[in-house]
Amino acid sequence: MLFPSGRRFHPRARQPLSLVDGPLFSSIVRFSIPLMLSNVLQVLFNMSDIAVVGQFAGSHALGAVGSTTILVSLFNGFLIGMGSGVNVTVARYLGAARQKDVSESVHTSAILMLLSGLLIGLLGFIFTPQLLEMLNTKPILMDGAVRYLRIYLLGMPAMAIFNFGNGVLSASGDTRHPLMFLSIAGALNVLLNLLFVIRFSMAESGVALASALSQYISAVLILLSLSGQSSSIRLRWKVLRLSPEKSRQILSIAIPSGLQNAIFAIANLFIQAGVNSFDAVVVEGNAAAANADALVYDLMAAVYTACSSFMGQNYGAGKRKRVRNSYLLSLAISFGVAAVVSLFLVLFGRSFLSLFTRDEAVAEAGLVRLRVMGFSYAFSALMDCTIAASRGLGKSLVPMIMVILGSCVFRIIWVYTVFAYFHTIMSLYLLYIFSWTITGIAELVYFVHCYRKQVAILPE
């Protein structure tokens, strides 16, 4: 358990942004914008993978890559969630100015994240055929899907390292360098996609190899950045070792956070089954409109990372008012971001869908989803931002259980009751706003309990 020291944390000269001093609103915005750009870049780069293979390798290759989407989201989501555990732990020690603990947390996290990436990559590689069979991958797409996923999984150790470094740097207030590294790796990914698919006719293997190589580039860049730091977050190869105490602290936050992210991919399986019960036009319209999900969620996720980082450092520094206001402002900003983007999606939904389909009937079906989700996205902020706030206080297990109940169990029940009764696409889409609202209220009650127990006793 980390305890606030009451000591004031003075950021070093190289630290881009202080999380414990200065105007809070503008600091959260400055912190979040590079993360937003990073997340949007990832969405665009992923879209480029699909676009390249679809345009230059044919429909079977596109279908093979698309068949792995849920598994890729599950693996990536787990590692991103673990990175948030690193972020919270390092941020709280930085806020408390406990430099030795910061260094131990950084070096322990590096080993834990690398081991996690290796384990996910190895198990995923071995059981790729079985996992794809569980998803009812079409036989004609199976060989290509197996090739794509196995090559993609070779990049898991690098992805784990990047998320480790991203967690450490963002905990210190640096979100600019991860954006820079991701931009370089993403641009390389696009170029390699074109080279492998067009020049060498590697189809799904080419885009998978391009993704894996670009992951290693981003991992190398972020390791070089950490090795060149002059503060306590510096990565020194000679002192790399596991601290049992820090391992327990990091894993107690990281594993529930990783599982929480993975749970959404599992819940989506049941929702997709409901969508698949309609005709092909509705299925294709849903797929086209669903491209908006990643854009909106990832923009909001940047603010959630800011929430955890600011709360973690200010809790470590013993600043009660800034802890509370970090949550309230992050909640307002994430709600506002979602509302603005949703408004544009509702107003210009047809133009957005034209990027993915030219079929008028498919576009009409997609507009139904965009309109319902456009009025729903913002309500997810109550759930996700409050989870990030609890994580900032070191609480991750109970929020994970609530998400399992609210975003997985509740949605499955909804599919087999409300949706089964009405069997309209509208009744399926409405489960999102109901599950977000119910889970968000439960998360808020738990957060208030934790806040009063851990933070309200601190001096103003």
Indicate the radius of gyration in whole angstroms: 22 Å
Task: Specify the number of helices.
Answer: 19
Sheet with the most strands, sense and barrel status: none
What is the number of E strands?
A: 0
What is the element string, with H for helices and E for strands?
HHHHHHHHHHHHHHHHHHH
User: Which shape, going by the Cα principal axes?
Assistant: globular
Count structural domains.
2
Strand content: under 5%
CA-to-CA gap between the ends? 22 Å
Structural class: mainly alpha
Q: Spans of 5+ residues with little confidence (pLDDT < 50)?
A: 1-15
In helices, the fraction of residues equals over 70%
Mean pLDDT, all residues: 85
Quick overview of this protein structure:
By secondary structure, this protein is mainly α. The protein is built from 19 helices and no strands. It folds into 2 domains: 23-245, no CATH class; 276-460, no CATH class.
